Here is the input.
Amino acid sequence: MISKKRIVLSSMAAALALSLAGCGSSGGSSSSATAADKTAPVITLSGASTITLTVGDTYTEAGATAMDNVDGSVTVTTSGTVNTAVAGTYTITYTAKDAANNTATLTRTVVVQAATPSTSSSKYVPYPIRTQAQIDAATTLSGSITADMTLDATKLYKIDGLVVIQPVMTIS
Here is the structure.
């Protein structure tokens, strides 16, 4: 004879088995459902993350690649510009998105520096002129002058081997 307790337990086991079958599981510990993708792609820059240029140089975008743990290689979009004619700091932003809409961003900094003038002491050396004889020796005038003119040369420069006078002229 079957007891009432045994019938109730059997009915509960059958109901549980039907419930699990409706969820797509056979009741074991393994699941055939795929876990949700919550990991963003990983972006890798081609080249350095910071680039320093001088005004007038050419900037060539090196690009970037992205890999996702589920989708594999994904597209990288680039935004931002670099104006090498103007000194400043510029940012290029790289964005990658996988099929689950997980998004990653990475930036590259481009620094455009102003050109520094040469300060070589052998290129521009001022020589003060102290006598009228030095001015006369270094100055040659040709042509005709029809106005009264005063020439006062206060400095003599040597530029790339050439002697140059910095005159101050007054014409009346």
About this structure: Residues 124-171 form one domain. The two ends are 140 Å apart (CA to CA). The beta strands are 42-45, 50-54, 64-68, 72-74, 76-79, 88-97, 103-113, 124-128, 149-159, 162-171.
